[in-house]
Structure to design on (183 residues):
């Protein structure tokens, strides 16, 4: 509700209350009871209009505050998710080659598993649907015959999983209003 309308309603309430008080103090005349009843009713209506206006104003302020909180929370979630996406892309870029030391490949595999666990934990805190979408393996095994000779042998499987999880994460970011909406 606009501020102008709320202000107009508040003014109407005050005017009704003023009109009601005028009738109450109109003096003792033959029409005393008529003036008194009109005054009381008008005063009551004025007070009711004023209270309704105040209640609507407070509710509008509360709703605006809640909306700002949700937007802030959504922004923080997007920032965290972007950071997680960046971490995953760095892992993908730094895949150990065949010439790498086997310990390097094992450390990389451990880093990928940690990244998947961290990302899934964060998405699970956002929504169950986001976590399920991230861990969805549909299509992951469709290209098991594809071999990338530049990647260390022990890292092939983890590289495929990392690539698929990054694709899932990208899809979640594309549909953020569905997956990341604050509770």
């Amino acid at each position: 509700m606009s501020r102008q309308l709320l202000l107009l309603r508040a003014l109407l309430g005050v005017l009704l209350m003023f009109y009601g008080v005028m009738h109450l103090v109109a003096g003792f005349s033959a029409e005393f009871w008529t003036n008194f009843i009109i005054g009381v009713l008008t005063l009551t209506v004025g007070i009711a209009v004023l209270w309704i206006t105040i209640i609507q104003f407070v509710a509008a302020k509360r709703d605006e505050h809640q909306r700002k909180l949700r937007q802030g929370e959504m922004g923080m979630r997007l920032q965290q998710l972007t950071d997680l996406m960046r971490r995953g892309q760095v892992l993908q870029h730094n895949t150990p080659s065949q010439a790498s030391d086997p310990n390097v490949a094992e450390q990389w595999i451990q880093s990928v598993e940690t990244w998947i666990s961290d990302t899934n934990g964060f998405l699970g805190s956002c929504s169950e649907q986001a976590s399920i979408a991230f861990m969805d393996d549909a299509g992951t095994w469709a290209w098991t015959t594809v071999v990338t000779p530049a990647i260390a042998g022990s890292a092939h499987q983890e590289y495929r999983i990392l690539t698929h999880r990054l694709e899932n994460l990208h899809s979640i970011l594309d549909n953020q209003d569905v997956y990341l909406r604050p509770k």
Remarks:
- Helices lie at 3-24, 32-93, 102-126, 128-135, 156-174, 176-179.
- The CA atoms of residues 23 and 38 lie 7 Å apart.
- The mean pLDDT is 80.
- Residues 1-73 form one domain.
